[in-house]
Amino acid sequence: MFKYDIGIVGGGPIGGFVAGKTAEKKYSVAIFEKNKQIGLPVNCAGLVTPRVFKIVNTNEKEIIQNKIKGANIHSPSNKILTIGGNKIHAFAIDRTKFDRDIIKEAEKQGADIYLNNNVISIQKNKGYYEITTSEKNTIRCKILIGADGPFSKIRDRLFPYQPKEYLRAIGAEITNTTLNPDFIEIFIGNKIAPGFFVWLIPTNKDGTNARIGLCIDQKASQPPKYYFKKLFENKHIKPYIEKCKITKNIGGTIPLGVLKKTYDEHVMLVGDAAAQVKPTSGGGIYPGLCCATHCANTAIEALDKNDFSSFFLKRYQKNWEKDLGFELKIGMKFRKIFKSLTDKQFDTYVEKFQDPKIVEIINEYGDIDYPSKLVKPLLKKTPFLLRLLPNLIKE
């Protein structure tokens, strides 16, 4: 039996970050990770905004593979909307190295890491949670934190809430591509990626290495592998990847629709476990780290005051919602509109958005992490969008 102040289930970047921040304050922290290695298997497209590196303490030179300045958005008939290009908007990163750097920092601060330890039982007692793992490790902790991904055991066993939907993702790392290294290629359409989109992310400065992938929603008629295979036959995508070779496969699940409640007595949920994910892009690293900051701060305050009540931990929810609640909520509204569009409508809107004045607005106000910033200035210049957004405007 081991006793800790904080027990964290999930050794990804979000759980690792909470561990590092809380261990830094000299509280005892344990991370339980079900996989044998940190950062593997990879189940992420590995694209983050520069804000991420203002939060975490990592070796940027080793982690950043390429700097992205813009995106080419391809409609179903291959009308192309080019946005950005004037400055760095995102980084393609090595997710395995990124995850491992964060865990190393947590260990440096004194956190204990238990690899290959899958949680098999969770029991609440007076004043603590007791956890037993597949390796027969049993711990007691004053605060239990679920950072265990989209199919969180902590959420499923201790909370009555679930994400509103799940996206199924599939992809690969590839070589011998012919890409502009400054730009991501995004392909939309109900036939190639129903409910979401396809991405091609250059991962080196020559545009010869990349990550290709797609997500589909739960209503897609075929499994992810079907749509992924079709990418290599698509006439609009083929020119970029005609001679490519797959070096590594990637896959995963993305939860969307943040939970109504992410805390209770002695317990908090963070990251994918709480569906703290951007509905417009599926990105979970930046919002997860923002929420992880509030989670760590709340845990530290609770331990300082020896108060682990639901009433006290409520401040975690209040603080992360103040930062990101509106963005995640409006993101789901954007997503609802996106899912309602036909391929013909995608073509129409991509063509209309090619207007230089509209592109200028997107380049000035567009923000991957905070897409709501674009709404008001865009509506002023594009009144034709008003009929698309009645529910959004009401909010």
Describe the 3D structure:
- This protein is α/β, with parallel strands linked by helices.
- It has 2 domains: about 1-40 and about 95-160 and about 260-335, 3-Layer(bba) Sandwich (FAD/NAD(P)-binding domain); about 45-95 and about 165-255, D-Amino Acid Oxidase, Chain A, domain 2, CATH 3.30.9.
- Helices cover about 35% and strands about 25% of the residues.
- The chain is built from 13 helices and 18 strands.
- Strands 1, 2, 8, 9, 10, 11, 17 and 18 form an 8-stranded mixed beta sheet that branches. Strands 6-5-13-14-15-12-16 form a 7-stranded mixed beta sheet, sandwiched between helices.
- Helix 8 packs antiparallel against helix 9.
- The termini are far apart.
Give me some keywords for this one.
8-stranded mixed sheet, FAD/NAD(P)-binding domain, disordered C terminus, D-Amino Acid Oxidase, Chain A, domain 2, 395 residues, 7-stranded mixed sheet, 18 strands, alpha/beta
What ranges have pLDDT less than 50 throughout 5 or more consecutive residues?
A: 391-395
Measured between the Cα atoms of the first and last residue, the distance is 51 Å
Computed Rg = 21 Å
Q: Give a quick account of the main beta sheet: strands, pairing sense, barrel closure.
A: 8 strands, mixed
Looking at the structure, the CATH topology of the largest domain is FAD/NAD(P)-binding domain
Helical amount among residues, as a percent range? 25-40%
Give the tally of β-strands: 18
Shape: globular
- Counted up, domains total 2
Secondary-structure class: alpha/beta
